[in-house]
Amino acid sequence: MLLFLLSSGLIQAQEDPARHLDSLEKKYSGLKDYLVDVNVHFDVEALKAPDMQAKLYYKAPDKIKVESKNVFFFPKEGGYFNPSLFRKKDFDVRLLERLTYDGRKAVKLRLTPTEMNRHHQGFVLTLDTDRNLVREINTSPSEGRTLRAVIEYAKFADFELPVHIELHLDMPSVEPNGMKEFGSFSQRSKRITGKVEIAYSNYKVNSGLSDEMFKETESGKLK
């Protein structure tokens, strides 16, 4: 009986869905910073905006800065890669599904913020468990507004980092000044739907970015 209980406990520990976040955190524990060139292409109903280019700077765990010669509208939710966003201590984790994603083993996890971390928002992650990569992020930042990010990776230095993020948007129509980060709308409609494609190139990883350059965006706000 004792052996059976010990075996049952071991199985439960092995099936703890939060362990997948542990694996993700361990995979990127050595990622201190990166800078990368970004190109954003909008394919959003009722929105006219040209492709936009910028340089993005990230420093762990949550510093972010965007530099552009021109006006730059950047999708703040799901638009850049921050593995620290999914720390196990910040969420209650529930396994929703085991599945195959692009021919690899994967799990779908629901992340609900803990009582101590209500400033976080909840996510549903599709995570490639063979490579410990977040392949999709689904979130509902506000009522009636949803976002799905689909992520493709390539290897830079010792890390697999995004080369393409496709954001699928579905949100209520709002007054133009409520959507400054997405440009100007050509017409009003009941809902705004479409996608934003973000391409990343010319990564420089762990180059020793200083804290000074992030002072204006210390709270994680984009410049």
In short:
This protein has two helices and twelve strands.
**What's the CATH architecture?**
Clam
Alpha plus pi helix count: 2
Strand content: over 45%
Mean pLDDT: 81
Main CATH class: Mainly Beta
Given helix and strand content, the structural type is mainly beta
Q: What is the H/E order? A: HHEEEEEEEEEEEE
Write out the strand line-up for the largest beta sheet, numbering strands in chain order.
Answer: 4-3-1-12-10-9-8-7-6-5
Write down the Rg. 19 Å
Q: What is the terminal separation in angstroms?
A: 61 Å
> What gross morphology would you assign?
globular
CATH fold node name: outer membrane lipoprotein receptor (LolB), chain A
Task: Summarize the amount of helix as a percent range.
Answer: under 10%
What's the number of structural domains? 1
Low-confidence stretches: 1-13, 175-187, 217-223
Largest sheet report: 10 strands, antiparallel
The overall strand count is: 12
Helices and strands, with pairings:
Blueprint lengths: L1 H13 L4 H9 L5 E12 L2 E2 L3 E8 L3 E5 L23 E11 L2 E10 L9 E6 L4 E10 L2 E12 L2 E14 L11 E2 L5 E15 L18
Antiparallel strand pairs: 1-3, 1-12, 2-11, 3-4, 5-6, 6-7, 7-8, 8-9, 9-10, 10-12
